[in-house]
Design goal:
Elements: H1 12-21, H2 26-44, E1 47-50, H3 52-67, E2 79-83, H4 110-117, E3 121-126, E4 138-139, E5 143-144, H5 160-167, E6 173-178, H6 184-190, E7 193-196, E8 217-222, H7 225-235, H8 243-251, E9 262-265, H9 276-291, E10 295-298, H10 306-326, H11 328-333, H12 336-347, H13 350-373, E11 376-380, E12 396-397, E13 400-401, H14 412-417, E14 421-425, E15 436-441, H15 446-459
Parallel strand pairs: 2-3, 2-6, 9-10, 9-11
Antiparallel strand pairs: 1-3, 4-5, 6-8, 7-8, 7-14, 11-15, 12-13, 14-15
Helix pairs in contact: 2-3, 10-12
Length: 469
């Protein structure tokens, strides 16, 4: 039996089992999670808004439902966090920017509403970079978020607060958001599982302005694949408010290919540098995937991504320009770098946006053909190990100088293509820092990725690894 002070180590699936057999209550777990929050959050700055009184009231209500044998769902009584770029009706959504310090929506984001309705216990909101546009986590309101595995380093971003909360045991689950890798890269830097679902597998309603076209999706972060599935199953499913979610639901009904799966291992994207320890860890994991009986081939990614090297930052610049046009008061209080980005966006011609949209559509068509020949693509989640927490990005990888997205080259194309991507831990670095891979599938193959990830986890588990906080 786990000591009561160590209940924060239990997975969501294990908590559900304990609740069912009446050996543990949501109220007891909530008390321990708050104590864990008090113990570790001052060092990490993962959770930036708390709701202790409501959290405990809801834990009591969940305890009473379980006592009656009437839980609302498999998520009932499980503590979770919510990223501070998603609307919550009872807490501000600041997006890490001063103008929204006290902004509070009248609605929950749809995924948050579904989690609440399922009985999830929201302990608080997690930190993000300003406008959730960076690959690390810091902002003028709440400061820097730190990695539980090495607090002087970053957990990545923009879901940095979310992964820091789960990796440190504040809550077993987090609702994250991924517009260019913001679930998968932080998961890799924190030793977690993170699912970026297929476009609109989790419908969107009641949202902040989109800065990255339709690339931004909602997904779960967890310590195990089974836990990630519990949260994903609650948040997913079609809604008429998001018509693309109807297509996503239809895609999941297509027949699945049975094992052995055809796996393409892509170590590198062109000449871009990759940390040697990341390369070695992912290569070792790929061998373990092959040992499960799947057909693994190594080779380049058969897609032309050169266009997006220049276009990717322009998408965010155009998005900021439009948002600041609509909300000049937000622009007035934004950090200078974002005002500069918006100025660059205003200088781009309308034809450039149209060209970007055309190339995104072509990429999505190209991936359909690609996944006729393969079932899964495996590649690193991030090109670099975690770097100094105060820096927006690492300036060098494997001895080569890189720009702001040098560490992030493996993830953005998956968002542009609308594909599902599942981040999983590999063997850590020599220093004990987490490393992750991502499995990418065709549109609508989220369940297949989760099944493959669970098979891999079953023979090479990682949930017993904890940072020494």
């Amino acid at each position: 039996m786990t000591e009561s002070s160590e209940l924060w180590r239990l997975s969501a699936v294990e908590l559900r089992r304990r609740f069912r057999e009446r050996s543990l209550t949501p109220l007891a777990v909530a008390q321990v999670c708050l104590a864990r929050l008090e113990a570790v959050n001052p060092r990490l700055n993962a959770v930036i808004a708390r709701r202790d009184a409501r959290f405990m009231e809801e834990a009591l209500a969940s305890t009473e439902r379980h006592a009656r044998g009437q839980p609302l769902s498999a998520l009932d009584g499980i503590p979770i966090t919510v990223k501070d770029s998603l609307f919550t009706a009872d807490q501000p959504t600041t997006w890490g920017t001063p103008a929204l310090r006290h902004y509070q929506s009248q609605h929950d984001e749809l995924a948050v509403a579904r989690a609440r309705a399922a009985g999830a216990l929201i302990i608080g909101k997690t930190n993000v970079p300003e406008f959730a546009l960076e690959g690390y986590t810091a902002n003028p309101l709440f400061g820097v978020t730190r990695n539980p595995w090495q607090p002087q380093l970053t957990p990545g971003g923009s879901s940095g607060g979310a992964v820091a909360a789960v990796a440190s045991g504040i809550a077993p689950l987090a609702i994250g958001q991924d517009g260019g890798g913001s679930i998968r890269r932080p998961a890799s830097h924190a030793g977690l599982v993170g699912l970026k679902p297929s476009l609109s597998a989790v419908p969107r309603q009641h949202v902040l302005p989109s800065l990255l076209l339709d690339f931004e999706v909602i997904g779960p972060l967890a310590r195990t694949v089974a836990d990630a599935r519990v949260l994903f199953d609650v948040m997913r499913g079609p809604s008429p408010v998001d018509r693309l979610s109807l297509a996503a639901a239809q895609a999941t009904t297509q027949p699945r290919r049975t094992a052995p799966l055809r796996v393409l291992y892509v170590e590198r994207l062109g000449p871009a540098p990759l940390d040697s320890q990341v390369a070695g860890s992912v290569a070792s994991a790929v061998q373990k995937i092959a040992a499960l009986g799947h057909q693994v081939d190594a080779g380049p990614l058969p897609l032309d991504l050169d266009f997006f090297a220049d276009a990717w930052p322009q998408v965010g610049q155009i998005g900021l320009a439009r948002m600041f046009e609509a909300h000049p008061e937000w622009a007035a209080q934004a950090s200078q770098k974002y005002r500069d980005m918006a100025a660059n966006g205003r200088r781009l011609p309308a034809a450039r946006l149209w060209q970007i949209l055309e190339r995104v559509a072509q990429l999505r068509r190209d991936t359909v053909k690609l996944f006729e020949a393969v079932d899964v693509i495996v590649m690193p989640s991030a090109a670099a190990l975690p770097w100094a927490a105060e820096l927006a990005y690492p300036t060098h990888i494997d001895g080569q100088e890189v720009g702001p997205r040098g560490h992030a080259i493996y993830t953005g194309w998956v968002n542009a293509a609308g594909l599902p991507g599942l981040a999983l831990p590999c063997e850590p670095s020599r220093e004990g820092l987490p490393i992750g891979l991502q499995m990418i599938g065709a549109y609508g193959t989220d369940d297949m990725l989760l099944e493959l990830g669970a098979d891999y986890e079953a023979v090479h588990p990682w949930s017993d690894r904890w940072p020494a906080l």
